[in-house]
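Tutorial, part two.
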Amino acid sequence: MPQGSPSPQPTGADPAEAAPLSPTDFASAVTAITSAFGDPTRRDIYLFARSSDPGVTAAEVAEQFALHPNVARHHLDKLASGGYLEVSVDRGGTGAGRPSKRYRPGADQVELAVPVRHDDLLVTLLGRALALLPDDQASLMAEEVGAEYGRTLAAAMGTSDVQRSFRAALHSVADALTAHGFAAHAEPDGDGELRIISEHCPFGDTAIEHPVICAVDRGMVRGMLESLYGDAIPATESSLAMGDDICITAIDR
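Running the prediction step on this input gives:
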């Protein structure tokens, strides 16, 4: 990882045991993750490497993604320098020719997450407070809280007057959600439209007891997209809190 950036956590690590980050450290952590995965091609390459046993070479990545080998090698080295892939020398069976580098995830699978400041008591109290309101009002309030925080996160990522493409913006949003413990990524649905998939909920049992909490992360998506891309309306298609296997947030533009 770059100096000063937190290391990725092995799967199974308890975020509650990790030291909380200051707002400045958190912004740096989000920047580091976005630097590694903000490029959609690089993220696809990482997922390709994770799904390939025993890892990939630059030549294999170049063929898979129709890239020049030097470009493929650049992406792989960027992921390796960030600690997301390990590199070994593949000498082949003949012993002749220049040995190639093979890139693979570490022995411990990595979740792209960093420790963040959180307070289970406050989340629980938020859920109970929202439960006192009618469902529609509670959902609107929770989503607006998330949207405001999402705008703050987008500002920390360094927004500019030139807005990003929808694809680049959505990948940046997924990276920021991952940094908050959602284990999120963007992927296309059956019609090729990108959506955000989250495989972990940092709100835990509180979201199961008070599903309205899901509106907070939906608001975060809306707030970040408003700043990074433009008007977009996220909608919750499935939710861990409602008993689904994953959380899916679809985006209407």
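The chain has two domains: 9-111, 120-252. In part three we will examine how such features are distributed along the chain.
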